[in-house]
Amino acid sequence: MGCAERRVSWYVYIVRCADRTLYTGVAKDLPQRIAAHNDGRGAKYTRQRRPVKLVYSESALDRGAALRREIEIKSLTRAAKRALFANARASSLRTRTSGRRAG
To answer: Please, what CATH class does the domain formed by 3-96 belong to?
Structure first.
């Protein structure tokens, strides 16, 4: 299996908690993990700060890569984290609208 054929198996994510704080984590099944946070079965930090909302995610090829990236993200300032997911959102919006026709 080539590098391009490898399936993404892990994600690094940032959620915004109800108290507006940010929580960064890793997960193999991202929708299930977000649901666990909101059901009170997630990280201890998020249990008292529900509901959480996913604001950023990126894929990683394996758990080690996801954990390394999580450490990088956690070392960023709050402003840098906000810029990270703001840029990702803007990029996503550009991608979605680039195929539309004017008219």
So the answer is: alpha beta
